[in-house]
Amino acid sequence: MNGYDETRPYDETRQYGETDPHDDPRPYEDTAERTFAAFPPAQGRGFAQTWWGQAWLKALEDTALDTQQVKTGRRLARAGAVGAVSVRPGRITAVVQDRDRTPHRADVLLEQLSGEQWDRFLEMAVERAGHIAALLDREMPPHLVEDAAAAGVELLPGLGDLEPECDCGAWDHCGHTAALCYQVARLLDQDPFVLLLMRGRGERAVLDDLQARTAASAPVEAPARPEGADAAEAFAAGDILPPLPALPELPAEPGIPPSLDTGTPPPPGVDPPALEFLAARTAVEAHRLLAAALREQGGAEEELTVEQDAVRLAADGGEQVLTERLAVGSGRDTEELALAVRAWRYGGAAALSVLEEERTVEGEELARARAVLDAAWDEDERPSLSARGCRWTVSDGRTQLRLGRDGRWWPYRRERDHWVPAGAAAQDPATALASVEEAATDRSGNAG
Predict the structure, then answer these.
(1) Distance between CA atoms of residues 323 and 21, nearest Å
(2) Within 10 Å of residue 259's Cβ, how many Cβ atoms?
(3) Are 431 and 78 in contact (CB under 8 A)?
(4) What is the 3-state secondary structure (H, E, C) of the chain?
(5) Which of 46, 136, 244, 271 would suit a FRET pair with 359, their CA atoms being 20 to 30 Å apart?
(6) Nearest to residue 9, comparing CAs of 85, 104, 94, 108?
(7) Exposed, middle or buried: residue 195 (CB in 10 Å: 0-12, 13-18, 19+)?
(8) What pLDDT sits at residue 227?
(9) Cα(337)–Cα(319) distance, rounded to whole angstroms?
């Protein structure tokens, strides 16, 4: 499907004759079913980034009697073998292809909440406005789940709650139902309302009910507040606060700096092409920082060194003479700068550090790395690796994995006499190594 955006899975739900879901970025609700298009293969990321997505996978892993089937499901999901996922009350469904492309219908059942349980959950949410705000932000904070549990409502599945059904004939979780669960973890990461639909009610129904309950519980007229009320009490009440302004809109693209081609000779020491280049790159960086702020990623980025900043500027492109000057500024020759630029484009300063850093991995970090490598492949598929420092080289001598300080694995391949970056980092070393093989396949296919 063209134009697929992995950061927000495409919801194919239709309602009231709508034919183009791209007209509205919010999913169409409230129907009894939502269908999400298949994810592409999972490259450079795990299946669950949020704590509630991880809790979903833990329910799968605790329930399945055969851990080998769970591993098979993870491989199938990573390879993109799970088709469109249908989510409806009490059931999720998808067609999953085996490695030989044999299709199987896989279903996973989850018990729906009763009407009484929904009443308790919604009353609890109305009493705490933060719970509603979190859901609208597509988040499920731990205190929401804890408060629901205290009200006798278990939102997340536990041991034995994920019941499998598959036409392959397996009576327990098989690779197909496990693969479906892995893909659904990715959906839950981005939209916890998917879990509420599985529990029995879609987003529109939940929000409409919450709105009705909020209106019913609101006083007809707010009591007058004495002047000089306690600040904490006033903030907690919320109803006397002025509305917050809307967030600024992100421009579609960075601004274009003014042209310096005025026909007037520049003063001595002023290089107009270099100034135009820096102005354009500054606009791009400002646009990126604003986008990051609007995504509420939070946290200030570490300031780049002069050498790192030279690589960043070179990665944006420019005239050859500027590239040569940036190579000098980065402390590299032009060939070394080209290699650094390739690393930067895969992962910024972190990727650049992995390219140039040689360090010893020992103690707890080494034990953890070996455990991750052992778990990444089935025993009959595990490649032979030789370790040197933070680098693990495959026996073929053409591919390599490098361990970053943050625990991510970076793929490298041998080109002539150099190891060069071959893809983005992944938490799973098998995914990182697979990206090298896929890139090689793409190159050979394009060459053909």
Answers:
(1) 44
(2) 8
(3) yes
(4) CCCCCCCCCCECCCCCCCCCHHHCCCCCCCCCCEEECCCCCCCCCCCCCCHHHHHHHHHHHHHCCCHHHHHHHHHHHHCCCECCEEEECCEEEEEEECCCCCEEEEEEECCCCCHHHHHHHHHHHHHCHHHHHHHHCCCCCHHHHHHHHHCCCCCCCCCCCCEEEECCCCCCCCHHHHHHHHHHHHHHHHCCHHHHHHCCCCHHHHHHHHHHHHHHHCCCCCCCCCCCCCHHHHHHHCCCCCCCCCCCCCCCCCCCCCCCCCCCCCCCCCCHHHHHHHHHHHHHHHHHHHHHHHCCCCCCCCCCCHHHHHHHHHHCCCCHHHHHHHHHHCCCCHHHHHHHHHHHHHHHHHHHHHHHCCCCCCHHHHHHHHHHHHHHCCCCCCCCEEEECCEEEECCCCEEEEECCCCCEEEEEEECCEEEECCCCECCHHHHHHHHHHHHHHHHHHHC
(5) 46
(6) 85
(7) buried
(8) 56
(9) 14
Residue holding tokens 């690589």? 311
Sequence letter at residue 181 = C
Two structure tokens written together for 308: 């790192």
Core vs surface per residue 214-229: b (16+ CB within 10 A) or e: eeeeeeeeeeeeeeee
List pLDDT tens digits, range 35-91.
Answer: 888 888 876 566 778 888 888 888 888 888 888 888 899 889 888 899 999 999 999
pLDDT of residue 248: 65
- Look at residues 325, 328, 388, 336 and name the one whose alpha carbon lies nearest to residue 359: 388
pTM of the model: 0.46
